[in-house]
Amino acid sequence: MDNTFLGDLATSVRGIVLLALFFGGSIFVHELGHFLAARWRGLKIERFSIGFGPKIFGWTGKDGVDYRVSWIPLGGYVALPQMGDPEAIEGATESDVEKLPEISYADKMIVAVMGAVFNVIFAFALATILWFTGMPVPEGSGSTIVGYVPEQVVTSSGQLSELGLGQTVPGPAFTAGIRSGDEIIAVDGVEVKSFTQITEAVMLGNGMNSQKQPVATFTLKRGEEKLDITVLPARVELNARSGDKVRVAGLMPRSDVIMSTPAAGSPAEKAGLKREDRIVAIDGHPVNNPTEFLERLRAAGPGERTLQVSRVDADGKGQLVTLKVSPKISATTNPVGLISYGEGDKRHAIVVVPVTRELLSNDPQANRDQLMVLGVSPEDPTRIDQLRIGTILDKVDGKELTVLRSLDDLVKATGAGRHTLTFYWKRANGDAGNFSLTEAEVKRGTPVERALIGAPFLAKPEIAHHNPIETCTHIIKQTFTTLGRLFDRDSDIKVNQLASVISISKTYYNISEDLRRVLWFTVLINLNLAILNLMPIPVLDGGHMLIATISKLSKKALNAKAVTIVQFTCMALILSLMGYIILNDVRRCSGDSERQLKQQVLDRHVYRRVDFAEKR
Q: In this predicted model, what pLDDT tens digit does every residue of 178-194 receive, in sequence order?
């Protein structure tokens, strides 16, 4: 059996188990809080359910409680008829509520709040474990010192940026004057203690200028000088299908540029670079980030470069050495086909790649190499379905109907200049059709060249030991900030960016190989559950507390029929919101799948392996 298949199967099983243990466990902990509080206060307990809706399986305990797991995995509940009419969410009660003893205001408040309290306790316990074990974080993310400030930021079609086709804007931080080595103290007046917090502060920012552009104020130290710099963050598209966008400033943290083992015959080997050498400077310019090092190599082009290298000798002593290296200028991508179309300045470029039969093995008609659409830059909303990744351009209607097998076929069949072209397309699922492009022009894309030295970088993630109180406090603050931004029209945080159980499940799957990341994500989930459940919305715990408080202040019970109507209405609204969020999550998953396929095509058919060995 294929080892890759076995590895994927193991990852899938591990992800499912972790989802059940930690996400299902978080719901269980919440309901356990209600259950134990109700038992302590002497309330009648009818049902303890993980999930809503019809029962999957369950049993009746010796205490008379109906314990069950239900079909809809959107939470859970403990049926407590004395807390109010539970029919809106939990189904009709089997008890005669009028014959049950009335419970006090204190009983209602304690039972309602204990679900959230148990989530907080569980989160704090997990955060304490992480305090001792440590949490892996990217190098430099624990500092606020800037390592690299790119001059350009890719805002969409990010995977096509290597081909020069991603949409870019001038780097916001670079344009504002922030430079490598600056230490960020605060963003919008709020102190930041890590690069992660800088990123979050920009992403959750709601500053807006008179031109309706995002604005963020950075307070930083440059030497002994303290500066306030205004940055206009860019909006970067995270997912083409869901439309998720976030604000970014265009900053990277400071991290060491450490070489791995140089390739045989590479410029790095010839220059004398060794594994674990740290590049300090290139041509006298300090480097504080691997991306900055690559950018300086690219910008300098061919010719000899002078590297200052920090090296630890056999005796464990550090030394600074100077090495001369002559990068190899080499194409890092294969040619691609570019079909540009559209009128005036509103032109789009379809990227077409010749793909092999192996990638199209799920297509029974794939008996030859074919031309696949890799993407469109910028995105063309009128042709999303026709031109999404995986579409095969099969024929073109030029002087005659021509079958397309290669980029040469494409160029020959379409001719030179701009004219209207009709393409015939198909997909592996059997969909097919045609479309016409006006002012269409076909060219062969120029392979991307880079200055390479033939030595990859060594990644050395840091292990952060965060105090559990600080961890929980930070997450709680970020949750309240996010909720506030949802109702702020100047913010870029929208309801459709919220995560449903689909995204939660996918996240557990993606991080399942590192239990520490699973624990951290579970801390986040539990604190979010606690906060959301305490919101004063009928059918939620906070709603029960609100109704109990109103009854207490008015000194009379609220009209049961009115409360039931409000509960049904709120439940309908909540389910509608959940449906909307799940729908966007499905779109997000579709976009993620397209991005993965695009990366697969790039790796197999566009990116080139550079051979540094001498040819004889």
A: 998 899 999 999 999 99
Last residue of one domain, picked from the residues 301, 332, 363: 332
CATH code of residue 315: 2.30.42.10
134-150: per-residue pLDDT in tens? 998 888 888 999 999 99
> Residue 195 in contact with residue 144, Cβ under 8 Å?
yes
Torsion of CA 286, 287, 288, 294, to 10 degrees: 170
**Cβ–Cβ < 8 Å for 471, 120:** no
Domain that holds residue 141: 135-256+460-464
Q: What is the dihedral of CA 19, 23, 25, 28, to 10 degrees?
A: -140
pLDDT of 10 > 80? The answer is no
This prediction's pTM = 0.85
Q: Residues 282, 245: one domain?
A: no
- Domain for residue 613, yes or no? no
Tell whether 167 is covered by a domain.
Answer: yes
Residue 259 DSSP one-character state: B
Cis peptide before 381 (omega within 30 of 0): no
| Residues 261, 285, 280: CA angle, nearest 5 degrees | 35
The pLDDT, as a whole number, for residue 6 is 44
Distance between CA 170 and CA 150 in Å, rounded? Answer: 8
- Is residue 321 over pLDDT 70? yes
